[in-house]
Structures are given as structure tokens and as C-alpha cells.
Amino acid sequence: MIDLRSDTVTKPSQLMRKAMAEAEVGDDVYGDDPTVNRLQAVAAERLGHEAALFLPSGTQSNLVALLTHCQRGDEYIVGHDAHTYKYEGGGAAALGGIQPQPVAFQDNGELSLDEVASVIKADDVHFARTRLLCLENTQHGRVQSLSYMASAKTFATKHNLALHLDGARMGNAAAALGLSLEAVAAPFDSVSLCLSKGLGAPVGSVLVGSKPFIQEATRWRKVTGGGMRQAGVLAAAALIAIDEGFNRLPEDHARAATLAAQLNAIDGLSVRDGWTQTNMVWLEFKKSHGEALAAHCKQHGVLISASTYGARLVTHLDLTDEHIEECVSVIRSFFNAAL
Ligand SMILES: *Cc1c(COP(=O)(O)O)cnc(C)c1O
């Protein structure tokens, strides 16, 4: 099967498996796992923050960040289609009593800072306390510019808000911008990065921030059940992901660009214009085609995410140029038959 549903479907490399087998480990809840400690030191250094924490997933990493920034009855401002708001089971509200205040993403994945300003609550017993602004980079594969991030930082400081980045795919953003992870992470008080997406680790995310922030986040990781024991077997793979995985991302972006260009030439579908900035391609077609297209692809050995909204194709390290060609040919055969 050629799997383009997500960049989370990759299998750990032989190098990772070897590093996992040989990892030096200890009980990380006691802070005794040397490989986890090394990963956290490397992540803090690469992202340019004081400290880092290794967590089982991006969802937990964002949740722990929200629980650390906000108290019960506080509020965070977030994009209407952001992962933290829409795709994490309402965890911050369910588990932290933290109210989300959604604001519509603009066409480029930015939140209008004027609109954000308009929903910040005054200090009044009627209102939740607005504490935090949460941004996402990449947002549905779209890169958020350094200048926008810098203006969000100035804005947050002026309004006394903390600033969190859901940087699940910030490696892709940095690669597309030709910048370091540190440059993209710099404006934020905290940043969450997934190691198990384009970077290729089997499991894990890192959260970075100041030393006191990470100390408090470590407490919330334990409270939410994310304290792991001999987690060095996972951190060993994550260490490879953070360096080799990051350097390899431009290949995924080049394949996504090829995929987008070739699919766009097919009658009956269009590629969302300007959205293929990293490793994602978004397709639009008649609503009724969604399920049939996914089924046709599956029957011909290609897995994609498709429904009435359209389709999303994601490139990753287990794909080759031949896989991309095959995917285009299978999708073309569907639309040739459908027309
Ligand atoms: C995948 C993703 C997450 C969550 O990561 P999991 O490891 O799947 O829990 C958070 N934010 C964004 C933008 C994501 O794409």
C-alpha cells in the first residue's frame, strides 16, 4: 500500500531500531533516563529555549502546555480549525476548565490580530480571564511567516497574554523558510513539536519553554498520565528524528509540489491554490466523489484521506518518486472514468 493519509504512518528506520535496542535507559519519572535527558537537552538547544520535556503525543504536549499556562476559568484564544481546539477532544475544557475562544483563520492560516484584540475580555467578574494566544505552524500545511510570528509576539506582550505555538509540523515550516527550528520557535513562550510526523520517530513530542514552565509542565505530564519509565527506548529514535528527520524534509516538500502540479492537470479536480507550501496537497472536487475516490484508490493500492470536504494527501519519508507517479496515475484513472 502507498499510504498518503498522513506523515504519521512512517515506520522507524533500521538506524532508529538499532538505536532503540541499544539505548541506555532509566526510570524517567525519577529523571534517571540518560537518553530522555539527552533528547530533552538537544530539543531545548535546537529550539532555543531553556528546557524541554518529552511527551507521548502532540495532543498531550498541547494539553500540558495549556494546563501550565492557564487556570480553571481562564481562556485561550485559538483558530476555529486549530488542532488544539477542534481535534483534541476538547481536552483543555474537559480536563482543565479552560475555555477556548475561537477566532476564524484567515485564508493564509493567520489569525487577524485585530480580531484577536476584539475578543480579549476585560477584567470583569462576568468574563473568563483571557490568558493565552495559541498559534499553529504549519497550519494545514501552510507556513506562517516570521514577520507574522514577530507581530503576534509584540501583540501578546502588549496585551499581557502568553504565546504558545502548536508546532506539530514546525520542522516543515522551518525547512520551507530555510530557517533553523530555533528561529521559528523564538517568539513563543512555549512550543510543542511532534517527532512522530515528518521527522519519522515512532512515538513522541517535545514541549519547550523556560525552566520554571517546564518544571510545572512536568507536574501536569504526570497528572495526565504521561510520566513514562524506561522511555529512553523511544527517545533514542526521537534523537535521530530531530536531526536527520529535519534535514530530510525538503525532499517531502519537493514530492508534494510534484504531486500538486501533476494532479492539478487532471480534469474534474483542482488542487487548493497556494496551499502546497510544505508536505500537504489538498484536493477539491464534487462532494459526491469523496468516498468513491478513496475506495478506488484503496482498491488500487493507494491510501488517501478523502470525504465530502475533498481530500488531503501528505508526503513523508516512506514515499519514493515512483509512489508519487503511481498515486497520480490511480487518481487520474478515477477522474477519467468519472467524467
Ligand atoms: C498531529 C497534530 C497534533 C497532535 O499530535 P498527536 O501526536 O497526533 O497527538 C497537534 N497539532 C497539530 C497541528 C497536529 O497536526
Notes on the structure:
With 339 residues, the chain is of the alpha/beta class. The protein folds into two domains: 11-246, Type I PLP-dependent aspartate aminotransferase-like (Major domain) (Aspartate Aminotransferase, domain 2), CATH 3.40.640.10; 248-338, Alpha-Beta Complex (Aspartate Aminotransferase, domain 1), CATH 3.90.1150.10. 45% of the residues lie in helices and 17% in strands. The protein has a seven-stranded mixed beta sheet with strand order 2-8-7-6-5-3-4, with helices on both faces. The structure holds pyridoxal-5'-phosphate. Residues 57-59, 62, 83, 136, 166, 168-169, 194, 196, 205 line the site of pyridoxal-5'-phosphate (PLP).
Mean pLDDT score = 97
The name of the CATH superfamily of the largest domain reads: Type I PLP-dependent aspartate aminotransferase-like (Major domain)
Distance between the termini: 26 Å
The stretches of 5 or more residues where confidence is low (pLDDT under 50) are: none
CATH class of the largest domain: Alpha Beta
N-to-C order of helices and strands = EHHEHEHHEHEHEHHEEHHEEHEEEH
Relative strand content: 15-25%
Q: In terms of structural class, how would the helical and strand content be classed?
A: alpha/beta
* Rg (CA only): 20 Å
How many distinct helices? 13
Largest sheet: 7 strands, mixed
User: Overall 3D geometry?
Assistant: globular
CATH fold-level name of the largest domain: Aspartate Aminotransferase, domain 2
Architecture (CATH level 2) name of the largest domain: 3-Layer(aba) Sandwich
What small molecules does the structure contain?
A: pyridoxal-5'-phosphate
Strand order of the largest sheet: 2-8-7-6-5-3-4
